[in-house]
Specification:
235 residues; alpha+beta; five-stranded mixed beta barrel; 15% helix; elongated
Length: 235
């Protein structure tokens, strides 16, 4: 027997032993709730160290017609899947005594990610403050690349549309530099950082190129938005 198989065998043994402590067998009765708890515990153990805020593990309800079952020993749990699991894992819970029954339990494994959402209604043109924002955990398969996870980068920006409470806030919903705003223009010249003031001729958000007008010279420049009311130009 290979070392890997031995390790897996011992891991399963210790897992089953831990189940015996967590779910006492003196009653020898396994109802639907207990079977689902055992399945969730098994999958959680297989995954290993996880951040509970970033992983949601739950068993799909079993058919209400399934009766309570007896078993004189700790049931054996197994699955053909290995971590990282897909969003659904199928486990077999099997009793190997004279009762000789088996039950399949489906466990849902959902990875979660933080998303910045509006904690109150925002009207078009309203300046966003920290009180307007909160962070909620959302399933990653629903999270778009445009979603944000850091509310700090939005503070001081303005909404370009009405945003309902609870909605995720996208960069396309806001402008960090809005048309007509006074902006700080920064440029690096031979290691020196130069600052001057200007007026935004277009809306823009982080990383976007917009046109700005230098207040002192009247020259129109192409600049990259790097923060609220702040742009960078190349010299």
């Amino acid at each position: 027997m290979s070392l890997l198989k031995k390790v897996r065998r011992y891991s399963v043994f210790y897992f089953v032993a831990s189940l015996c402590l967590a779910f006492p067998l003196h009653a020898k009765i396994f109802n639907k709730d207990l079977l689902q708890e055992m399945a969730v515990s098994y999958v959680t153990t297989k995954i290993g160290d996880i951040d509970n805020n970033k992983m949601q593990i739950s068993a799909l309800p079993l058919d209400s017609r399934i009766p309570d079952r007896n078993c004189d020993m700790a049931p054996e749990l197994s699955t053909n899947s290995e971590p990282p699991f897909n969003r659904q894992v199928t486990l077999q819970i099997k009793c190997n005594d004279a009762q000789n029954w088996a039950q399949y339990v489906h466990v849902r494994v959902i990875e979660m990610a933080p998303v910045v959402v509006a904690s109150s209604n925002l009207t078009r043109g309203e300046v966003i403050t920290s009180s307007h924002l909160s962070v909620e955990m959302k399933p990653t398969h629903f999270v778009r690349i445009q979603y944000l996870d850091d509310p700090k980068m939005l503070i001081g920006s303005r909404s370009k549309r009405n945003i309902r409470s609870g909605m995720p806030i996208l960069l396309s919903h806001i402008c960090m530099v809005c048309k007509g705003d006074s902006v700080n223009i920064y440029a690096n010249l031979k290691g020196l950082k130069i600052k001057t003031s200007g007026v935004a001729l277009e809306d823009g958000t982080i990383g976007e190129q917009i046109r700005v007008k230098n207040k002192k010279t009247g020259k129109v420049l192409n600049a990259r938005v790097d923060g609220v009311e702040s742009v960078q130009v190349n010299i």
